[in-house]
Specification:
By secondary structure, the chain is mostly beta strands. Helix content is about 5%, strand content about 50%. Strands 4, 5, 7, 8, 10 and 11 form a six-stranded antiparallel sheet that branches. Strands 1-2-3-9-6 form a five-stranded antiparallel sheet, with helices on one face. The two termini are about 35 Å apart.
């Protein structure tokens, strides 16, 4: 995949606005390789939590990125500046796959994908208007950065059954929380590598690890060292994760997000770097 240069990137940002108010879910925004929509369902709960989904319907042969696209690429992002009674929007990410091209390995999706969104409503008992700006990359031979704007009015109309089902499916597809029997169990540094030990169900089959960079750290595609049966019902897999970039020595070690994907399912958690 040919990643677009920064000069060309600036030329693509003037994307037209999409969607209109007076709808609990937006109209579709069409771009090369994808159709994008922002969906909400119901109203915020008493804690101000409103669930939604960013739907990216990719055409065959097109791809988009995970939360960490690697050394180059455009991860999905959403902001709600200018919204009314909406304090924040947070994307979450289903389990990705590794892809490789002449520019290296990167994590993302090659089929239609829904990113769950949690909106924080400041006053749950009052009117809210979401004015969302979405920025992501869709890629075939060239990566195209796309910016779209959506106006959504939660609860302005009864939920369309298909939209409600789409939001529920987006959250259901998220990796489960990692635990002692399925997730990362130990981490250590060796030169320019992060050695990550994992435990997973014995019949998990092939496993893939994705570690998201943070606070100046950038990681490459992990290499699997070995798999062992272990003494109990779980097996053990060791990953060597290349450290492509790190901050200065004065920077405190961060906590980074990871996703572990196997044939038996996927889990997500955090790693405290040593």
């Amino acid at each position: 995949m040919k990643h677009i240069m920064s000069v060309a990137l600036a030329l693509v940002l003037a994307a037209p606005a999409a969607g209109r108010a007076q709808a609990a879910s937006s109209e579709s925004f069409h771009t090369d390789g994808a159709t994008i929509r922002l969906i909400t369902t119901g109203l915020a709960d008493r804690d101000g939590v409103l669930r939604g989904a960013l739907e990216v319907d990719l055409e065959p042969g097109w791809k988009t990125y995970w939360r960490d696209p690697g050394a180059s690429g455009v991860p999905p992002q959403i902001t709600v500046v200018g919204s009314l009674n909406v304090e924040d929007a947070r994307l979450d990410y289903p389990a990705p796959q590794w892809h490789e091209d002449s520019y290296g390995a990167w994590a993302g999706y090659d089929a239609p994908v829904r990113f769950p969104v949690i909106f924080t409503i400041g006053a749950p008992d009052r009117y809210a208007l979401i004015k969302a700006s979405v920025f992501l990359g869709v890629c075939q031979d060239v990566c195209i950065p796309v910016q779209a704007r959506f106006d959504v009015e939660p609860g302005s109309a009864p939920d369309a059954p298909a939209d409600k089902a789409a939001v529920e499916a987006a959250f259901a597809a998220l990796p489960a929380p990692a635990g002692d029997d399925f997730g990362v169990t130990a981490v250590r540094l060796e030169a320019d590598q992060l050695i990550v030990e994992t435990t997973m169900p014995a019949e998990s089959g092939e496993a893939a690890l994705f570690v998201a960079g943070a606070q100046g750290y950038l990681f490459g595609a992990p290499r699997t060292d070995r798999t062992e049966a272990g003494d109990g019902p779980a097996g053990r897999t060791i990953f060597h994760v290349p450290i492509l970039q790190r901050p200065g020595t004065d920077s405190p070690p961060p906590t980074v997000a990871y996703t572990l994907v196997t044939d038996a399912g996927a889990v997500a958690g955090e790693i405290s770097l040593p």
